Amino acid sequence: MTHVSDSASSGADNDTMSSTVLGGGSGVASNSVDRSRSTSKSATEPVSIEKFLTDGSLARLCDEMTRLTGVPIWLRDLDGRVVVPREGGKLWDLQKPAEGAQRAHQLVGLSLPRQETQHPDHPGGLDLFVAPLRTPDGVCGSIVMPADWRGDDPSGRRALERAVTLMASTASESIEGQLALRQRLDELGALYRLSSLLVRAPDANTMLNAALDLALDVLRLDAGSISMVDEQTGALVHRATRGLSEEWLSESTPLSIDGMLRERALHGDVVCVADLWHDDRIADPQRPQQENVISLIATGLSNAGSVAGGAGPSTGLIRLYSRTQREFTPAECGLLRSIADHAAMVIAMQRLRDLRAQDGHIRRQVRLAADVQRRMLSRSRPDNPRFDLAHLYEPSFQLGGDFYDLFEKSSHGRELGVAVGDVVGKGVPAAILMSAVRASLRAIVAEEWRLQEVIRKVNLAMCRDTLESEFVTLWAGIIDTDTLELSYCSAGHDPALLFRRPSGSTAGAPEILALGTEGMPVGIDPNETYEVKSIRLRAGDVLVTYTDGIGEAKDFDNQRFGRERVEAALVELLRSEPNAGAQRCVDHLVWHVRQFSGLKLAEDDITLVVVRVRDDDAAGTASSGAAGRGR
After folding, report:
1. Is 323's pLDDT higher than 90?
2. Does 22 score more than 50 pLDDT?
3. Separation of first and last alpha carbons in the chain
4. Three-class DSSP category at 153
5. Is the pLDDT assigned to residue 148 strictly greater than 90?
6. d(CA 343, CA 259)
7. Dist CA 462 CA 460 (whole Å)
8. According to the model, what pLDDT value does residue 628 have?
C-alpha cells in the first residue's frame, strides 16, 4: 500500500500556482487567453527530477534527514530509481529502486527484507509514504519513506510526514523556478533568432515566412499560416503557409461559428482550442478532421503590441495547428504573442521603409517640378532705361501657387507689362494651376494687348479648364513707356500701391495711391466683365504689387502684417532714401516682414514686384549704358 502526502491532494492548487508563476514569467498577463475548452493533455511530456539536479544537494538532504530522524528517507526519479549522492566527479547517481532503498536503510543500520521480485513502489515489501515533486507538466519525482515507521508514535510519524511534504514542496518550487527560467531563456532565444532573421529579411514576405517557421519550430507544431488584412477589402490574405492543403487555404468561411475565434484573435487575445473535432464553437468539425489538424493556437499581429481588451483590431493573424491533441501552456501563449508582436513590428517598419522610399521619390519629383516652375517665371527683366525693376518669389512649399511676369510687347519696348497672381490653395495643385494661368496669359498677350480683352480671355480659359473651386486673383498693368500711361485691372486681387513724391520736392513723406478695380477672380464666372483704369506715372514713382503672403504674414501672437505695415515700411524707406532703387525697396519690405514674423514659418507664398520710374537724369544714364552694351 502506498500513502500519498497531503501535497498530492492539493495538486490543483500547486498547478494553479505553477501556472501563475509561469504565466507571470512569460509576459502573458496582459493578454486574454482563451483556455476554457482546452482539456487535453499537456503539450510537454513530464520530465524527471534528474533534469534539475546539479550537485545532488536534495539527495544529500534526504541522507541528513535519515541520520537525524533515524527513518530511511530517499529521493526517487520519475521511473522510481533512487538518486544517491556521490563524491568527486559526478555529484549524484541513480540506483535501482531496491538498491537505493537498501542504501537508505543501511544509513540507520537496517536492511530491507529480501524478496525474489522487487516492486519499485514496494521495495522489500514495504508500504511507502510518497511526497511527490510537482511541475506544471506533472510529477517529476518524489521523496519517500516507510509508511508504517513509528507506528507506536502517530504524532511523531505525522510530524515527520509533514516535514517530508514541506521538503517536497520546497523542492517543487525550486524546480518550477528553474522551469520558468528555462522557458524564459527559450523564449528569449527564439525572439533573438527571430530578430536576427527579421533584420536579414529583404522584404515582408521573406520575414513572415521566417517568423512562421520559427513559431512552428519553437512550439513544436505541425502546420500554420500568417495572413494579413487587406487594407482595401478588409479580407485576410495568406502571406505565409506551412503544412496546409490548398482546399483548407482557399476556404473563406470562418472555422468557428460567426468567426468568433478569429475576431478574438484579431483583437489581441491568444486563442487556444485543444480539440477542433469536438469543440462546440467550431462551425464544421469535418473541416479540421479532413485536414487532420486537432489543436489550434492563434493571435493577432498588432503594430502597437498587445491590444487585449478590444483596443483595436490587428493588421494580421497567425494561426498554428497540431496534428495531435495539445493543451497550450501560458508560457507557450506568451511566446506566440511575443513572436506575433515582433513580426507585426517588422511589418510596420517595412511599410515605413516603403513609404520613406516613396516619399523620397516624390520629393525628388517635386524638386524637379519646382526647378521647372522657377524657370518658367521671369528670370530676366526687361531692359528699359525708363524703369528700374525688381521682384521676389518665395513659395511656402517647394512648389507655389503665386506667379509674376514682366514682359514687353515688342523688341523696341514700347509697352511694358506687369502681372502678379495668386492661385487658390498651395502646393502641387496650385502650382499646376499657376502654370496653366501663366501660359494662358503669355499666349494671349502675344496677340492681344488691350488689357480688358487680355483679362477676359484669361477668365474664359480658366472657366473652361478648371473646377468652380479653382480660381486665381490677378493684378495686371500695361505701361506705355513713351507716355508713362499705366492701364491696370484688378481681378479680385489686392490693389497695387503707388508711392509718389510730394509735388516739386524729393523730401517729405510720399503720397500713397491704391490702384485697384472691381472684379471677381478669374475662373469663376465666364460672363464677368472687368474694369480697366489708367494713371499717368511720373519720374520717381514707385509701383508695388504683391500677393497676400506679405499682407497676411503673421507673428507669434497671430497678428497680421497687413497693408498698413506695408505702406509704413516703404514710406519710412522713401522718406529717408527718396532715390531708393527697386531692389532696395524689395529688400527693405521683406526685411520688415521677416522681423515681424520672426522664426514663424510662412503660411503662404510671397511674391513681390517693384517698378520704379527713373528720374530723367537716371534714365539718360541708364539709356547710355544700354546703348553702350548694344555697341
Report:
1. yes
2. no
3. 129
4. coil
5. no
6. 23
7. 5
8. 43
Pick from 373, 379, 497: which is nearest to 433 by CA? Answer: 373
Which residue is it, cell 487535453?
Answer: 40
Q: Give 457-501 pLDDT, tens digit per residue.
A: 999 988 888 887 788 999 999 999 989 999 999 999 999 999 998
With beta carbons less than 8 A apart as the criterion, state whether 61 and 99 touch: no
Listed in sequence order, the residues at least 6 apart from 32 whose beta carbon sits closer than 8 Å to its beta carbon are 264, 268, 269, 270, 308, 309
288: cell is 479540421
Q: Which amino acid is at 455?
A: I
How many other C-beta atoms lie within 10 A of the C-beta of residue 584?
17
Cβ(517)–Cβ(530) below 8 Å:
yes
Q: Within 10 Å of residue 537's Cβ, how many Cβ atoms?
A: 22
Amino acid at 252: S
How many whole angstroms separate alpha carbon 77 and alpha carbon 422? 89
- Spell out a b/e string for 243-255, using b for 16 or more CB atoms within 10 Å of the CB, else e: bbeeebeeeeebb
**Cβ-contact 517, 490 below 8 angstroms:** yes
Looking at the predicted structure, is the pLDDT value of residue 364 above 90?
no
Average pLDDT for 175-193? 80
Chain segment 79-97, per-residue pLDDT in tens: 889 999 988 777 889 999 8
Name the residue with cell 494579413: 228
Residue 256: DSSP 8-state: B
Give the count of beta carbons closer than 10 Å to the beta carbon of residue 185: 10
Taking Cα atoms as reference points, which of 133, 135, 124, 161 lies closest to residue 75? 133
CA dist 486 to 477, 536, 579, 613, Å? Answer: 6, 6, 21, 12
CA 211 to CA 225: how far, in whole Å? 10
pTM of the full predicted structure? 0.52
pLDDT at residue 25 is higher than 70: no
Q: Backbone dihedral region of 305: left (phi > 0), alpha (psi from -120 to 50 degrees) or beta?
A: left
Crossing angle between the packed helical segments 451-465 and 427-445, to the nearest 10 degrees: 140
Cα–Cα distance for residue pair 290/467, rounded to 1 Å: 60
The answer to whether 160 and 32 are in contact (CB under 8 A) is: no
Which residue type does 417 have? G
Pick 82 or 412 by higher pLDDT. 82
Band the pLDDT of 185: cuts 50, 70, 90: confident
- Between helices 427-445 and 330-376, what is the axis angle to 10°? 20
Ranges of H-type helices in 448-581? 451-465, 548-551, 562-576
Q: Which residue has the higher pLDDT, 478 or 502?
A: 478
Length of the chain: 631
